[in-house]
């Protein structure tokens, strides 16, 4: 197995950061320009195009959603993973690093696929949102391997993940997937779980002492949870078509998430002694409704439909933490630090299925004839088929890509932590002195207590 | 008194969550649909209505404010209450639970009152804002009983609170109350204080050891304070009429809050030995200006008027923490954990009075004749009377409803904590092991110190 | 030197808060009114002006950016400075106080300069953004003296800083500076460093025990970092002209910041033993790209241009923390608690230079003839000269003003902490009891350990 001393790490990370960032600059220099709405030629453009005014620039109708999504990516995902007692720096810091790299690479990859032939990638605020989305899938994957890999491994995971995402997205182009249940959540979770499966550590219990939270780290994680929960309506509606589509997606997501909270609490309480609640469930499962309503958020799911989706996913996700995560670890040798299977994989697949069914069942009665044509590129039954196909492609890409990338990451060159050193910021971070003295005191106290007991 | 062992809690909470959520799904199925701006029929609607374009959908002119309000409800209120050393999980977690339930119930209750006769509740982003507002009043009430009630009691409080809010709001329909000084803050605070009065615990000092903060819990609470403070301009302007009304409400709130900070700091410093500052005041009283300017935010209060309102409320609110909270506990037997009397009740009443006076004194000279007609449904003097009546109705509903609900909550069936167990997450949450060992160390140290002193 | 006992503080702070706030009310009463878009006369105004509709009110095209900037000022700056182990209250609390005062004074100062002759200051959302910007410069200056001054000194710093800012801004009016690389960052940092130079404390190492972080204070600081990083695109675009300008500024900032993260991580890792990362760098240097792209954000910098700016500033800023900060302290006697030289001064100057060069090099080929005229008030070469002049003025104002204000603050009347009492919340805040008992335990443990070693 890959228990390198982290010394090989010392020059590797800076080298990767520098070289990749220089590559980004060169590629951006060759390929990336402003589009007509973010270029100074807009002043001429708006005259030619039915006399647009400045306030009709798409910036004003996408930017607030973009900023909400941006908060989710950096604060939401970052803080959600700070729950471990000694890996908060790594959680929020490496999340920051890989997202900052990933959004640049995503702008290129997605740009290339959407601008075949023209030669230039023309960017605007919608591209920024899509780049954030794309990176989101890699941050999900990070959740599965949190504390067990080096930052260089994470950067490689992100490079490959973004690439796979962009290809996957291009293939399933005809499947509607506004909130990315399939392309972001299912793909990202499958990708992360497959990598974690390849990188399986049989002796991980040597780090068991660090695999848990302390009181305040759980409160930090709630910052992540709440900002994800809050801004999820923006996430699912950010790239919907303007007007009723974006409006409806926000409403559906708001409702699905509200419903999820109640069933997550219920199952959490049922699963524990004396009906107590488990912070892990509150931090994670309460978000499952947002994942599952992603694909169909834009559809005429109806308010009660959104509530039902949330209801089911709160149950399934919490049960996942109670039963599926231990099962995966024992029987399938998948170690899933954050339980992304429960928060992203299962709810994402449900979301894909809900999307396929509700697309296949769409009627002119519900949508209106013009509304139906505007919503779906194909007739409902065909659309449903495409949705189902899209889900399968996402799963295949996730698992296949994850196994391939995991195999590369298994090479003993990446400076990942030893089995007894996982979930420990000490490996990659200068820690404040106080922490060390604090642990000295803990040890000292243990020593004294034992002595005391001897007396 | 109601010192149940929390065992009865173990099946009660899941049952309530499940049953109520299923009820929500059924009621939403019967009553709730999308309105014309969030339905696919928008495509036809916009043609018939003076050729609207997609970007004229109301979504774009309410949604940014909605998201700010949403942050306040979940992060703002939730983290503001994390200041207690051992009740941060309960603060942020139960806030999450009851808000997620409350917004669903509020959509129904408010919808029924606004759609008499049509049979269906048609929702859009404005309804989401109103639901958040409605729940806000229940979260205020939670502040009074923080740490002393069970989550089931909180859910009952929310169910009844939302119901009362919707009725109250319907009755005072002709009173303008954009930021809810009366309907949200005064009502919510009276409701919470009345419940706390009924649930008075004479032996609460048995939990005194937990009724305080630690250094980092105070910093967590500042997250709540700042997000409330920051987004309050959005809160007070979120449902104002478009154009100058919304614009002015944001400006007035911005100014009132700035002013409040300075007088809160001043009084806090005067109230303490050596002029030191008290975090409780900084966390809470700095927000009083936002409460008090709620009703009149939309009016031509003038920038200096907003500053004066903030000035006074910073003083009154901080003095409230110094003098009124202890007085209420000793003399009126009202135990108010978060001091909602000082942050919501007194400033809310002031806000109602400011609203009544400034409505009664509105003139064509200041507003312009068209502006005056657009702002108030009635002539100024009559409007002022309606405002004053609205304030009284909010107080009566709050106190009356609170006493009734409190009486129900006093029944010994709800699994609330014992007197020596209040303010303790241990009762309802699985706590991380480290915390326990931490307290072991504390005890051990105390023991050793005593021994050392004996020597 | 000025080692006053903080007793003089006890009545001074309340007096300043009260008197200044009353002065604000009087001055606002005389000078400040709503402008035509936030006044009820808007209803008439919009008819006369080509039949505007309510949703064309500028509120809707500035307010989302305003709220993002507001988060940066209060949460971003406030939490970024919470990294010290025992000064988190002071960081977030005094930041709150001085910002709340400063925005009021900024509305007046900036208003007077922009409304010469009309007699009244007419405010709208754009003024609120400018006031936040202005205060930003003073919060930057706070970073240099964090933990070493009293709140009264901070208020004086803010009063004078805002005044200088407004004059500076008026003088360099013809220089474009959308994100304030020059007027906010360079000026603010020079101002703070000059003050810190005058207030140099040779015996500051007496407080050395408190000049560092603990694990959770570093996580708190990341809240500040991330919200600053996230919303920086809004900061740099908030007051750009509508349409492509605002759009482009957001894109450029997004890219510059992404690039900065990678080079900051790289240099941080290179600078430390075993390639570990330093939280100070991650918290601060990752933001340098946003500072440096401020002036040119609106220009046709091109996406790769933004990446290059970010690339260089991540390197320079991190090297600054490693080499320049110690150098400044030893050789120039400038004690810079937060390292604002590295985050604001050097990147700000770079930003000014980038702005001057890219303005001077602007061509019709790139901008289009109409675009070029719309962007710059002067021909490119002249514009470049004005930009360079603007940078020089900002530096001169910062250093000159800082020396003058620092000299006043050196008077032994302000109640600043003693040399062995710096970076300690104890001086100005009532601290929770637990903290004290915690330090008792630490001392006790040290005592016991020594005893144990003797045995």
Q: What labels describe this entry?
A:
homotrimer, globular, 455 residues, mainly alpha, 69% helix
Provide an overview of this structure:
The N terminus of chain A is likely disordered. Chain A has one domain: Ammonium transporter AmtB like domains (Ammonium transporter fold, Orthogonal Bundle). Chain A is mostly helical. Chain A has a two-stranded parallel sheet with strand order 1-2. Chain A has 17 helices and two strands. The relative contact order of chain A is 0.14. Helices cover 69% and strands 1% of the residues of chain A. At the B-C interface, helix 3, helix 8, helix 9, helix 12 and helix 15 of B face helix 1, strand 1, helix 2, helix 3 and helix 4 of C. Chains A, B, C: Keywords: Ammonia transport, Cell membrane, Glycoprotein, Membrane, Transmembrane, Transmembrane helix, Transport. Chains A, B, C: It is a multi-pass membrane protein. Chains A, B, C: This is Rh family C glycoprotein.
How far apart are the first and last residues' alpha carbons of chain A, in Å? Answer: 45 Å
Please give the radius of gyration of chain A in angstroms: 23 Å
Spans of chain A of at least 5 consecutive residues whose pLDDT stays below 50 are 1-5
User: How many strands, which pairing sense, and closed or not: the largest β-sheet of chain A?
Assistant: 2 strands, parallel
Instruction: Please report which band the strand proportion of chain A falls in: under 5%, 5-15%, 15-25%, 25-35%, 35-45% or over 45%.
Output: under 5%
Multimeric state: homotrimer
What order do the strands of the largest sheet of chain A run in, or round the barrel if closed? 1-2
- The helix content of chain A, as a percent range, equals 55-70%
Q: What is the count of distinct domains of chain A?
A: 1
In CATH, the architecture of chain A is Orthogonal Bundle
For the residues shown, what is the average pLDDT of chain A?
92
The CATH class label of chain A is Mainly Alpha
Q: Using a beta-carbon cutoff below 8 angstroms, give the protein chain pair with the largest interface and the number of residues from each chain.
A: B-C, 76 and 78 residues
Q: Look at the structure and name the CATH superfamily of chain A.
A: Ammonium transporter AmtB like domains
Structural class by helix and strand composition of chain A:
mainly alpha
Number of strands of chain A: 2
Look up the CATH topology of chain A.
Answer: Ammonium transporter fold
Q: What global shape of chain A is seen?
A: globular
Q: Number of helical runs of chain A?
A: 17
